[in-house]
Design a protein that fits this description.
With 333 residues, the protein is α+β, with helices and mostly antiparallel strands. It has helices spanning 20-26, 32-39, 53-67, 92-99, 117-130, 154-159, 226-248, 265-274, 296-306, and strands at 5-12, 16-19, 43-46, 77-81, 107-111, 136-143, 163-170, 175-184, 192-193, 208-210, 216-218, 223-224, 257-260, 312-320, 324-332. Helix content is 31%, strand content 25%. Helix 7 crosses helix 8 (265-274). The two termini are 19 Å apart.
């Protein structure tokens, strides 16, 4: 049976930056230090007024192709993970195929997922390669959540940032993609939701309510029930990791590096302690980028590779909006 590998990864951050000091100016009850201590983020990048998720994905891919120019003509399938696509139709992936100068024999489609999206993208890419459908898959993630956050929503403003990433999955590379554990629980859909603007509720409602936790809930803006999401991750992530380790015939000591979705400092530190993961093997990279949704793990992968940390078995785990979760093991050379 053929195998699938991550061959290259890169990312792009938009130029606009929102610092904790700027947030503190708008919300004096929160100091810059308080925000940093609570969420582990000092600044996050915001997409420009006319800059879309597809633009971020395009720039990430062009950065990757600048490093590996020979890869552009090899791409025979493009996957775009985004919840911030340019149009209702056509798919942003089709537009990106043309913008990136990829051959017209290249397959392409979008898929709508958030914090677990990278693992799902790797799963689909591996399936395409192992199934003989493609040989070189370009997996793009891109998100512009900050466009959907209400100006008075200080909680989400401290957490989320925008970014785009690009990954080449092929029949050779620096990291073999191993087993997967994937899961979904749509009963928790309203825990993280942008309610209006889709086919169900196409028009803006202008509705503001309280969610029972003294948090305002704007139907026309991004809403997250932080407490419910925290409880969800506490329940799901340890089980998901245990299932993956069983599939891989490994125990925790056999994992050389752990890369979780970079949700916020408090949440992932809680998970690390809950699961008794060695802090020295637990990679964190969010201080200057924030929670970039489906981008957090590929960004962390790029930075960990740059630091020479991608060796042996690297466990990736994403979880969040959907509700959805996914994990895989990379076997690095």
């Amino acid at each position: 049976m053929s195998k699938a590998f991550i061959k290259a990864v890169d990312y792009y951050l938009p130029e606009n930056v929102l610092t904790n000091e700027q947030i503190a100016e708008r919300f004096p009850e929160w100091s810059a230090e308080k925000v940093a201590n609570k969420v582990g983020i000092k600044e996050r990048h915001l997409s420009g007024k006319d800059e879309t998720a597809a633009d971020l994905a395009y720039k990430a891919a062009e950065k990757l192709f600048a490093q590996y120019p020979e890869e552009r003509e090899k791409v025979d399938f493009l996957l775009l993970c985004s919840q911030s696509v340019d149009y209702k139709l056509p798919s942003s992936s089709c537009i990106l195929q043309n913008r990136l100068g990829l051959k017209t024999s290249c397959g392409a489609f979008d898929f709508n997922l958030g914090c677990s999206g990278y693992e799902y993208g790797l799963a689909v890419a591996k399936g395409l390669i192992v199934g003989g459908i493609a040989t070189n898959v370009l997996v793009l993630t891109a998100e512009t959540y900050t466009k959907y956050i209400h100006p008075e929503d200080k909680g989400n403003q401290t957490i989320f940032g925008d970014a785009g990433t690009a990954t080449i999955v092929a029949r050779e590379g620096f990291a073999e993609i191993g087993e997967f554990v994937l899961g979904t629980d749509g009963s928790g859909a309203e825990m993280l939701m942008l309610k209006t603007g889709g086919a169900r509720l196409p028009k803006k409602a202008g509705c503001v309510t309280e969610d029972g936790n003294d948090t305002q809930k704007w139907d026309d803006n991004l809403y997250m029930d932080g407490g419910a999401i925290f409880n969800f991750t506490s329940d799901v992530v340890p089980v998901m990791v245990e299932q993956l380790l069983k599939k891989e015939n490994l125990d925790q000591d056999g994992v050389d590096l752990w890369i979780f979705h970079q949700a916020n400092k408090y949440m992932i530190n809680y998970l690390r302690k809950l699961m008794c993961i060695n802090k020295e093997k637990f990679y964190v990279f969010m201080e200057h980028v924030g929670n970039t949704v489906s981008n957090t793990i590929p960004i962390a992968l790029y930075e960990a590779q740059k630091e020479g940390l991608l060796k042996g078995n690297v466990l990736l785990a994403g979880f969040g909006v959907g509700l959805s979760w996914g994990a895989t093991m990379l076997h690095c050379k």
